[in-house]
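Could you show me some protein's one-letter sequence and the numbers that encode its backbone in two labelled lines?

___
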Amino acid sequence: MRDAISSSAALPPITYSATSASSARTSQTAAVIKRSRPILSHLRELYAGDRVEVLTQTLGADDRRLHLFHVLTREGDKVPAATGEQMLIHLSAGDGRSGPVQGNVRTRVLELARLHAEFPLPERASASIRLR
């Protein structure tokens, strides 16, 4: 029998650097993304050596939050092995307070949310963590 893969370890914060050219020089601002209220559903086992695919749908976004839904399947399968839903909150690296995402990152995230709004909501999506 193959060993089942499991992961319950806490994930570290996601960090990114946004680069913007406001004049002739480039400035770089660091920020942190905090995961809030993840909802994970383990539906089937995966085994060491299994190839997996993860599809992500943006369920909503605003200036400081990003609501994502992930579906993990064994490569070639249609039945999900797991789903994950989470709200990501943008924090300023300087003071750790929630604030708006700046520049190109903000534009791209809001456009992605607009495009994904045309898709139906996933069946397992929770009403408890939606943007209001």
